[in-house]
Write a structure and sequence with these properties.
By secondary structure, the protein is mainly alpha-helical. The chain is about 75% helix and about 5% strand.
Length: about 270
């Protein structure tokens, strides 16, 4: 199996994780989605030079991973795979912002380096929480939650179809790559002209397959509504989940827990 085939199986692994039966999996998707939205809103609300106050927020992704019995190594690998995008966003900050904010021994730390670290920290927090949410809820559950929260149905259906089209695109690309490797095993590197032809064929094949999938859905009674096997409702557990985590986020946002804890430790050591 080539690299694209392995990646396709890897993508489908998230759907396998979302089919778990932990207490977190059984929570209503709306509660998990709303809590994660509050988490991301709190994380991105800090100023660009804040780093230490963001550290306590790692508690929420860690809770999702532990309570959902998720493979932390797998999620860390996914996080590292998209980390270069966050690096590209802030890599020039140390060059553009050279104002010294504080001294670390004899070394002066500029605002550019602090903001760069802050970007990486926010990225790690938000992406890890989103991956954990997807792993304990699934794309169908997230789309169902969006629809039941009042998001316009055309947007929800388009999001669901986008996810399915990406899977179809990856599947067709894997088959084309395998066919090429079987027919030209001696040539490892393709010319630019061959890449152009393959990309054009890939677009046409995925569109044709997506059309067949859509017609099959219509034949099976699809009417724009999202059906899920596990139907849930907002109860006392969901209410407690949202309110407890909202309170925790409010405390983390109002107080620098890392600084308070550091001062307590330093005071106890004196």
């Amino acid at each position: 199996m080539n690299e694209l085939g392995r990646n396709l199986i890897d993508i489908g692994y998230i759907d396998t994780l979302s089919a778990g039966d932990s207490p977190l999996h059984r929570l209503d998707p709306r509660a998990k989605l709303l809590t994660t939205f509050l988490f991301i809103s709190a994380v991105v609300s800090f100023n660009k030079y804040e780093v230490s106050a963001l550290v306590p927020f790692f508690l929420y992704p860690a809770f999702l991973i532990l309570a959902g019995e998720l493979p932390a190594r797998y999620l860390a690998g996914k996080l590292l795979a998209v980390a270069p995008f966050a690096v590209l966003v802030g890599i020039f900050n140390p060059v553009l912002d050279r104002q010294i904010l504080f001294q670390l021994g004899p070394v002066g730390v500029s605002g550019g380096w602090v903001s760069f670290i802050s970007i990486l920290t926010r990225f790690a927090l938000t992406v890890s929480a989103a991956l954990a949410l997807l792993s304990v809820t699934g794309m169908n559950g997230i789309c169902e939650a969006l629809a039941r929260l009042g998001v316009p149905r055309p947007f929800v259906v388009q999001l669901l179809f986008l996810n399915r089209y990406l899977l179809a695109l990856t599947g067709e690309a894997e088959r084309m790559s395998r066919a090429r490797s079987l027919r030209s095993s001696a040539r490892k590197i393709m010319d630019l002209r061959i890449y152009e032809q393959l990309l054009g064929q890939l677009l046409l094949r995925t569109l044709d397959r997506a059309e067949r999938v859509y017609r099959a859905m219509l034949c099976r009674g699809f009417d724009g509504r999202i059906r899920v096997v596990r139907f849930s409702k907002i109860g006392s557990r969901e209410t407690a989940f949202v309110l407890c985590w909202a309170g925790v986020f409010a405390v983390f946002r109002a107080m620098n827990i890392s600084l308070v804890f550091g001062n307590l430790v330093m005071g106890a050591m004196k």
